[in-house]
Structures are given as structure tokens and as C-alpha cells.
Design brief:
By secondary structure, this protein is of the alpha+beta class. The protein has seven helices and 13 strands. The strands form four sheets. The chain has a five-stranded mixed sheet. α3 (81-98) crosses α7 and α4 packs antiparallel against α7. The longest helix has 21 residues, at 2-22.
């Protein structure tokens, strides 16, 4: 009798062991952390050896110095120095490429892909960091009413980089809109420079899709490189400041 009990218990234990061995296991806890890459971490010689030839050839292009930046530029809303600088480049270069006077230049905030540019040497790679996308510069002629609606859309998005105009944001609407320091005239027509992504309705600006475009055939990234080069050759440093182009109404 006793041996039968032990046998039954032994069989039960064996079944439990087998059952445990067969069932699936799932993690009950997970731990993760970010590891900052710095000089204290040894590089993998196999990987570095693999891409070294490509890196060398790429560095010969991307590390080329283009200009000197006088002060740090930052990306902020409703207005930032980096956005002001890039919007100014868009306006200046668009006029040069098209031979047309540009009233306003507008950049989509999300199109600027870095949070800041540090003071010092600006290299080719910085233009690619800022604008990795192949967006072309285009011109569109907007009525004052359409430009006013455009400003309202930018106000809803908390402000985009602009050049040649200013406005305030009040209750997610654009108020006190000025072009070249003059109140916007809804009956007038304005030439606006922007990238083809926005002109084609990107970032929610679908109302722009039906407005004809004048294509410059120049990538905005190339325009940045060209502007920096020209400033350097002229002996000028790059700088930008906040100018209350877009602010919140008080």
C-alpha cells in the first residue's frame, strides 16, 4: 500500500516535471537603457575595417568647410534663429534662381531635421543634417486671402520659419499679419518661395496643391551650400537673431 502511494506521488511529480519542461516561458520583466556612444567604448575592428574605405571617401566630401557660424542657431517655435536663417536663405536664393522678386519665404518646421547648429565651422555635412530630403525650391503666386489662410494654418501648427513677413498668434489664428512691414492686403497678390513638398500639399497644406508652381530646379539643400559658400568667399560669417517674426499675442 505504501509503495503504491509513493508510486502515485512519484508519477505525479514526474508528470509535473515533464509538464514544466514542455510549457513555454515568457519574460516577466524587461530592463533597457540608452548607452551613450563615446570614446570610452572600444570600436569593433571588423565593422570599422569594413566601412573604412566608404567613410574615407564620404568624409572627403562631407567634411569640406563651407563657412563660419558666429553664434549658435536653434530650432524653436513660434520663432527660432535656425528657422530665421534658413527662411532667409530660401528667400534670397529663390530670387536669385528665378530672377523674380520674392515677397515671402516659408519653410515647414518639420522639414528642418536638426535641433541646432553649434558655433564654429559649417561643413558640407551640416547642410545634409539640416535637409536630408531632396526638396526643390518653387515659387507660387498667392492672393492676400490665400496667404492669410496660410498664416492661419501656420498659427494652428504653432509657427513656421518665415522671411519677409511677420504675424502674431492669437487663439490659434494669425493676427496683425505684415508683409515687408506693411499690413497684408487680401486683394493683392504675393510671390511666395517654399519647397515643393509643402507646395504639393505636404504637412496639411492641401489648399496649395491647385496653385501653379514656378520650379527653380534647385534643391533647397544645394541652395544652403551655395549661400554659405558665397558668404565665406565674401569674408562674411553666418549669424541670425530673433526678430519677432512670429510671436504670441499678449
Amino acid at each position: 500500500m505504501t509503495s503504491n502511494i509513493y508510486s502515485k506521488h512519484g508519477l505525479l511529480i514526474a508528470c509535473l516535471v515533464l509538464f514544466s519542461a514542455c510549457k513555454s516561458y515568457f519574460p516577466v520583466q524587461e530592463h533597457s537603457s540608452l548607452i551613450k556612444i563615446n570614446a570610452s567604448l572600444a570600436s569593433d575592428s571588423i565593422i570599422t575595417g569594413y566601412y573604412a574605405p566608404y567613410k574615407d571617401s564620404l568624409d572627403r566630401i562631407m567634411k569640406v568647410p563651407l563657412a563660419e557660424l558666429e553664434n549658435e542657431l536653434t530650432k524653436k517655435q513660434p520663432e527660432g534663429t535656425l528657422g530665421n536663417h534658413l527662411a532667409d536663405i530660401l528667400k534670397i536664393q529663390a530670387e536669385q534662381y528665378s530672377g523674380t522678386r520674392v515677397d515671402v519665404a516659408i519653410l515647414n518646421y518639420g522639414g528642418i531635421r536638426i535641433p541646432a547648429l553649434s558655433k564654429g565651422t559649417l561643413r558640407m555635412e551640416h547642410a545634409y543634417f539640416i535637409m536630408p530630403f531632396d526638396n526643390y525650391i518653387v515659387l507660387q503666386t498667392l492672393t492676400g486671402r490665400q496667404l492669410s489662410d496660410f498664416c492661419d494654418s501656420m498659427a494652428i501648427k504653432k509657427g513656421w520659419p518665415v522671411s519677409g513677413m511677420s504675424f502674431q498668434i492669437e487663439n490659434s489664428k494669425a493676427v496683425h499679419v505684415n508683409v515687408a512691414d506693411t499690413p497684408l492686403d487680401v486683394q493683392k497678390k504675393y510671390t511666395v518661395a517654399l519647397n515643393d513638398y509643402v507646395a504639393n500639399g505636404g504637412d496639411g497644406m492641401t489648399f496649395l496643391k491647385t496653385i501653379p508652381q514656378q520650379q527653380t530646379g534647385v534643391l533647397f539643400r544645394d541652395a544652403i551650400i551655395e549661400y554659405w559658400n558665397a558668404q565665406n568667399k565674401a569674408g562674411k560669417k553666418i549669424s541670425a537673431a530673433l526678430e519677432n517674426r512670429i510671436s504670441y499675442a499678449k
